[in-house]
Amino acid sequence: MSDVDLSSAQYENHREAGEILAQVREEAAERVEVGASHLELAEWTEERIRELGGEPAFPVNISIDEEAAHATPSADDSSTFGEEMINLDIGVHIDGWLADTAITVDLSGHADLAEAPEAALDAALDLVEPGVETGEIGAAIEEVIDDYGYNPVVNLTGHGLGRWDQHTPPNIPNRAVSQSVELEAGDVVAVEPFATDGGGKVSEGSDEQIFALDRK
Length: 216
Known about the structure:
Layout: H1 9-30, H2 38-51, E1 55-56, E2 61-64, E3 85-94, E4 97-106, H3 111-125, H4 134-147, E5 151-152, E6 158-162, E7 165-172, E8 189-190, E9 195-196
Antiparallel strand pairs: 1-3, 2-3, 3-4, 5-9, 6-7, 6-8
Helix pairs in contact: 1-2, 3-4
């Protein structure tokens, strides 16, 4: 858990990072079109974050179709967007205090699949407050995605955000679970619904492109 004092400067850093990120997410999504370069979009997005006063929290992730998350273009990447489902995952930090978001852009003609996790996110955010069980949030996500006729990706979850730490407790599941925890005042969390027309689980890819610096 983040354990951030809600009146502290650290919390304001979280909020400022989130405000920058919300703007950059929308601007980046508008630049996604057939024929545009993955690498150029990633580089533009990271520079735009800096222009607005933040720093990238991690390399911009550009995941295509069955790549659910965490793909990023390499320095010599020549890929361009086609008629695909694109997931942009972007992070911003202010002095290490993080914000993390993603947006799906549909160029494939499957708008309802892109809409399902957005609707699930809205339902989840309506529940987020101190005292709510994370399993209750997961159940709301699962119900909305199921209503769209898709499956939630159950082995990807939302998570807490800390200083210099992108994934902290608590996990925010994308389905109903029997074991969960209550959110507490001061928690900072990323809620991350994923929808699929597949079986609802992802596996690790073999190509590792994102690394973390150990500050110890």
